């Protein structure tokens, strides 16, 4: 009964007529949709936004910042006739403890210039400077008044050489007097090669180190003002001889350039690099590069023809790997680590003809090669000298070649263990006055810690890598070391060869008789 009633209700709903107004509304809505599709979307009505304009006033401080950007210019070299003497750059001092700074960058017994002037532990040497000035001016037949006037007339040039903050506490007269006393002491010390009666032996050694600290330099122009009036003494030759004391190859002092150095540290750098021969070295380097490029091109051309001829690619690749022709070494990472590895690859070490740091050469033969390195004395002054030379090369007004830094990085690549130092000592390349080979290896590792290697010696490293990549060189070098490292093994080899030859000859005649 319930189901019949529900069925009747559904039929009534289905049969219920739709009102006419509803049909009209449906038609009107469908017509509007068709019009909208033909006309496209209508733009939405703009909504008025209420904005609040905020007025920001620029302060004088920001105006100064904006003005500094507008007035920014590229850094140009200083117009001062004398090069600047900066402090040790901050990037060098990062990670350096105060004790290390005092040990390697701060003078121990005497100050030159304004940076460390007046420090308590340096006051005892200030009493000696007037006596040295008196003796030098007397030996050079000069009047102290005339020398002082020349320095004071150039006092503005002196001021521009140093950091501005260090100059604020010195007036012109004080600064000129400081330059006179410091300059006369330096020239007197150089004139007598440190043999000053009032100085004890340990003080002389410390002064020799203090003379080559970056923050302890006088403008070389000041020294010229003092010694240019000398009537008897030829100070230029004496300065060259003094700088040349550390050069152990017997290089003549006349070969050392003395053309407008910035200071004594810059002159020491020129002595290490041998700048007078820089042009010849560049010419030789270009010739070697051209020769190496031609040989490399010819070798690759021959192997390319052989590759087309051979059908066994595996054999070809193995031969190329044996003789180090598997790839272009110019874009290859350097895989050799130290002298022991190079020695195992058949590379022998010899001292260069001079002690110039630029006198590095490499010659490769069939299964052995020679790497020539400059002779170097390692003593207590080596580390502070090289650290200050590296700091000087990092300064804005220093030479742009970074040769000393690159040499130290190259030597650090070779020296990793006391045995590496021992090998260089045995070949008369290093003279170790410290007594410990471990100490020498540690010195070079510490000097180059955090130092950027600009690879001035990239060509030499490429040639070493090419020779090192030839596996056959390592095999032959290992065989020679194992079997011919002593005269007894060599004699045994000769005896064995002789026995084999006799046996072959005897066998031949026996067969011939039969």
Instruction: Indicate the percent of residues in helices.
Output: 55-70%
General form: elongated
Per DSSP, the total helix count is 25
Distance between the termini: 136 Å
H-E string: HHHHHHHHHHHHHHHHHHEEEEHHHEHHHH
Number-wise, the strands total 5
Low-confidence stretches: 12-16, 276-288, 290-294, 305-331
Q: Specify Rg, calculated over alpha carbons.
A: 40 Å
The secondary-structure class comes to: mainly alpha
The chain-level mean pLDDT equals 78
Sheet-strand content, in percent, reads under 5%
Largest sheet: 3 strands, mixed
Oligomer state equals single chain
Main sheet: strand order = 1-3-2
Task: Characterize this entry briefly.
The chain contains 25 helices and five strands.
Topology summary:
Blueprint: H1 2-15, H2 20-39, H3 60-70, H4 90-93, H5 98-104, H6 123-126, H7 129-139, H8 144-153, H9 155-161, H10 164-167, H11 172-191, H12 201-210, H13 220-227, H14 235-243, H15 264-273, H16 278-309, H17 313-322, H18 339-344, E1 347-351, E2 361-364, E3 369-373, E4 376-378, H19 382-393, H20 403-414, H21 418-426, E5 430-432, H22 437-447, H23 458-468, H24 471-483, H25 487-513
Parallel strand pairs: 1-3, 4-5
Antiparallel strand pairs: 2-3
Helix pairs in contact: 7-11, 8-11, 11-13, 20-22, 21-22
What does this structure look like?
- The protein has 514 residues and is mainly alpha-helical.
- Helix content is 57%, strand content 4%.
- The chain has 25 helices and 5 strands.
- The chain has helices at 2-15, 20-39, 60-70, 90-93, 98-104, 123-126, 129-139, 144-153, 155-161, 164-167, 172-191, 201-210, 220-227, 235-243, 264-273, 278-309, 313-322, 339-344, 382-393, 403-414, 418-426, 437-447, 458-468, 471-483, 487-513; strands at 347-351, 361-364, 369-373, 376-378, 430-432.
- A 3-stranded mixed beta sheet has the order 1-3-2. The chain has a two-stranded parallel ribbon with strand order 4-5.
- A hairpin with a 4-residue loop joins strand 2 (361-364) and strand 3.
- The chain starts with a helix and ends with a helix.
- Residues 12-16, 276-288, 290-294 and 305-331 have low confidence and may be disordered.
């Amino acid at each position: 009964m319930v189901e019949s009633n529900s069925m009747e209700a559904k039929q009534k709903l289905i049969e219920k007529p739709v009102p006419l107004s509803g049909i009209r509304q449906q038609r009107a809505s469908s017509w509007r949709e068709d019009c909208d599709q033909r006309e496209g979307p209508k733009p939405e009505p703009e909504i008025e936004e209420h904005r609040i304009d905020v007025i920001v006033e620029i302060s004088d401080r920001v105006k100064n910042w904006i003005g500094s950007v507008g007035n920014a210019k590229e850094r140009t070299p200083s117009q001062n006739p004398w090069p600047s003497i900066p402090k040790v750059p901050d990037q060098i001092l990062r990670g350096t403890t105060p004790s290390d700074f005092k040990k390697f960058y701060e003078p121990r017994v005497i100050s030159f210039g304004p940076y460390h002037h007046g420090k308590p532990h340096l006051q005892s040497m200030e009493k000696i400077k007037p006596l040295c000035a008196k003796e030098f001016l007397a030996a050079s037949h000069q009047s102290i008044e005339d020398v002082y006037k020349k320095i004071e007339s150039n006092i503005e040039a002196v001021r521009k050489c140093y950091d501005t903050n260090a100059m604020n506490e010195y007036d012109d007269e004080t600064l000129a007097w400081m330059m006179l006393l410091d300059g006369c002491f330096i020239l007197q010390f150089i004139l007598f090669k440190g043999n000053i009666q009032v100085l004890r032996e340990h003080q002389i050694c410390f002064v020799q180190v203090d003379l080559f600290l970056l923050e302890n330099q006088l403008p070389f122009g000041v020294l010229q003002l003092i010694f240019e009036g000398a009537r008897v003494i030829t100070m230029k030759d004496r300065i060259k001889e003094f700088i040349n004391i550390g050069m152990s190859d017997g290089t003549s002092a006349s070969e050392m350039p003395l053309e407008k150095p910035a200071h004594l540290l810059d002159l020491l750098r020129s002595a290490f690099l041998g700048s007078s021969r820089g042009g010849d070295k560049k010419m030789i380097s270009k010739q070697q590069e051209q020769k190496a490029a031609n040989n490399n091109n010819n070798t690759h051309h021959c192997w390319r023809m052989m590759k087309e001829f051979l059908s066994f690619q595996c054999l070809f690749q193995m031969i190329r790997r044996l003789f180090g022709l598997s790839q272009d070494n110019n874009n290859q990472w350097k895989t050799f680590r130290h002298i022991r590895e190079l020695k195992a690859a058949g590379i022998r070490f010899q001292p260069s003809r001079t002690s110039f740091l630029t006198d590095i050469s490499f010659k490769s033969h069939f299964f052995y090669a020679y790497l020539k390195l400059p002779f170097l004395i390692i003593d207590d002054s080596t580390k502070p000298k090289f650290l200050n030379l590296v700091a000087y090369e990092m300064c804005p007004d220093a030479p742009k070649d970074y040769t000393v830094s690159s040499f130290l990085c190259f030597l650090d690549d070779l020296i990793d263990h006391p045995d590496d130092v021992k090998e260089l000592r045995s070949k008369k390349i290093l003279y170790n006055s410290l007594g410990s080979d471990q100490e020498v290896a540690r010195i070079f590792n510490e000097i180059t810690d955090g130092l950027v290697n600009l690879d001035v010696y990239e060509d030499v490293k490429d040639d070493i890598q090419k020779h090192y990549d030839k596996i056959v060189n390592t095999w032959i070098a290992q065989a020679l070391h194992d079997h011919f490292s002593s005269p007894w093994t060599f004699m045994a080899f000769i005896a064995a060869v002789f026995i084999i030859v006799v046996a072959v000859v005897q066998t031949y005649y026996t067969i011939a008789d039969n």
